[in-house]
Amino acid sequence: MEKSSKFLIFKGRTNVLIVTNDNKEAIIVDTGIDEDSGRKIAKFLNQNSLTPVAIINSHSHADHIGGNSYLEKKFKIQSYSTKNECAFIENPLLEPLYLYEAFPPESLTIKTLAAEPSSCNSIEEFNINEFGIEIIRLPGHSIDMIGLKIGGELLFTADAFFGIDTLIKHKIPYHVNVKNSYLTLLMLKEEVKKFNAVLPSHGDLIQSQSEAEDAILKNINAILEVRDLIVNSFESKKEVESVISQVLNHYGFSNVPLAQYFLLKSAIMSYFAWLLDEKILSLETEDGRLVAKKI
């Protein structure tokens, strides 16, 4: 456990940030993947004699909202996020639905993709001033993800970038809008210089500006590597599914569980959107297949 006078970090598969004020009240920032995560957070709060007053969700992915329902009921508190993220927090089935592009089979309604539903209110309705925090918009990994600034002390970056170990393991970073993720990373590369420490949702607390910049640069390079791989795969017209297969095989994801396949496919399709918007590729249908070509 790392601790300061203004925040505590409950480390786990998904880091949970606890922001406190002088009255021993606390905001829980993200809640892990399930009810068990919520129980552990509740125990952590009790051990530190803190009274939670609200949950702030950085975004709507299941590993960040899974403990919401339990904590809301136990402490009679509410959750807050951006309006776009609230739509998914209140209706978690939307995530496997858009990944599968239809109503998903039961094998895709697992807790890693669809958490328990919980209430969600616009972050603009919650007074964060007394906790000395400021919202920072970090779109890309999710539609309208946010992070937090705590004075000049801590910048919480949610899933805007991943720790080096996580990046090495997953190879193709998941971003629902990779173009926005790229722009967010360029912004963060400068923003981290203003803070003593940076906390990503997955990875260790970073207390060196050069280390934070290096992690962000590695995330930028990982995005550009996938983008270049897709662009360079085109000599002529090519079926989109074959490009997806080529990228997956390149990174060693030839045979993966169904849920992981749909996440990876969604991530790769985000690159296609970026390349289409920049007029580098075009899409059309041919013989009942979706095909792309360089412009």
Automatic annotation (TrEMBL):
Specify the superkingdom: Archaea
Q: Name one GO molecular function term.
A: hydrolase activity
Q: Which residues form the signal peptide?
A: none
Is Hydrolase a UniProt keyword of this protein?
Answer: yes
Question: Metallo-beta-lactamase domain location, by residue?
Answer: 13-202
Keywords annotated in UniProt: Hydrolase
SMART domains, sorted: Lactamase_B
- What is the name of the protein in this document? MBL fold metallo-hydrolase
From which source organism is this entry?
A: Fervidicoccus fontis
